[in-house]
Amino acid sequence: MDPRLTKAPSAVAEVDHGLEHDVVIAELGFRAAAMAHEVGTVGGIVTIADGTGRVLAQWGDEGTRAVAAEANLARWFCWSEAATGTNGMGTALMSHTPVLVRGAEHWCQAFHDWTCAGVAIRDVITRKPIAVLNVSCWRSELPGTVATWLGNAATMTQRILRRRAKDDGGELMAAFNHSRSGSSAPLAAVDPAGRVVLADDIAGVLLGIPGSTPAPDPAVRWKPELPEFIQAAKYAADQAARNPDWAGSTQIYTRLTNEPTPISFRPVFLSGHLVGNVVSFGVSDGDPLPRAGEDVPSRAQPRRIVAARENRTVLLRTPEVSFAQSDGNDVWLSTDEGLLRSASLGLDRLEAELTESGFLRVHRQYVVNLSRVRGVERRDKGELVLVMDGPAETMVPVSRRNAPTVRRALEI
């Protein structure tokens, strides 16, 4: 990114989101319009952008909007980090917490007169950004109420998404019961992130989760201890979202056998909106999913891991992080810059963000970057310990239940 960039580029014309995202954006528009007068009285503007950083609407002080237009901080221009560097909207889309970008913290010199605060609204299932709400001031400070207002707007909008997700979970359970009546194969109903809403007793054993225990609420859905299964479920959801008639199959290693087990995916829709898949075990039906090493259509992956050092936000590339360790509600990152606190709240959330970037849960307290594992030690009672690279050669324990997954991932 050229720091001498003076204007944001035009956004792409294609719309790559579903109707449910429009509901969220409309809700944000209602809240932004209500805040516009207060922000405008101090020369500020309120902006909404979609999950790609494309600006959709703007309110506030007319003079500031005119200055913003000179830098293309206006509708139909793109303010993602990839397009314009560090800025309130783009950096918020990369973060799971609200962000504040002041003056020279903007990557491009032409934007150093701006102070911006943004918060992203994320899908409660996939954790992908849907939209971002941003307040900007030119050559002045933001109103003192901005942080509270942004937080409340995000909280209220996320409640709408959680209610919708719970309804989606109920639809998945209904689809599971319908499939159960016509099939003797073990079954599980999974959401687009690979979390299980309901599995029968046999599928529960295969996945390492409780069987016949419904979990429609997205906050308590079951996470299988099988990264291959989660990856396949995410791929299946991507394919079904593009083609409602799609069905697919693959093979995975389960917790009970050293031989791969065939599984098939059938998508479930509610009012034209994909809510997940019903998975049949021991059945091979539909298009084959790519196997490890084959080309998989690209999907959004975390390019940065957000951490904090005192009052500064630190943006890390994934290779710079060796492992993450939980300490109560805090998560600490072992990085090339030392120990940093993660911006993600909880190790489960960080794991979900990094699963497709070469990170693996090896213990209830540890997620490791597999590319940073230098060696493996076997202790007297058969326990595995990972030796991480770096001068300290830090030892990371592997729990017994995760040991088979770790062995497969490291091919040992």
Automatic annotation (TrEMBL):
<feature type="domain" description="HTH LytTR-type">
    <location>
        <begin position="305"/>
        <end position="412"/>
    </location>
</feature>
<protein>
    <recommendedName>
        <fullName>HTH LytTR-type domain-containing protein</fullName>
    </recommendedName>
</protein>
<dbReference type="InterPro" id="IPR046947">
    <property type="entry name" value="LytR-like"/>
</dbReference>
<dbReference type="Pfam" id="PF04397">
    <property type="entry name" value="LytTR"/>
</dbReference>
<dbReference type="InterPro" id="IPR007492">
    <property type="entry name" value="LytTR_DNA-bd_dom"/>
</dbReference>
<dbReference type="InterPro" id="IPR029016">
    <property type="entry name" value="GAF-like_dom_sf"/>
</dbReference>
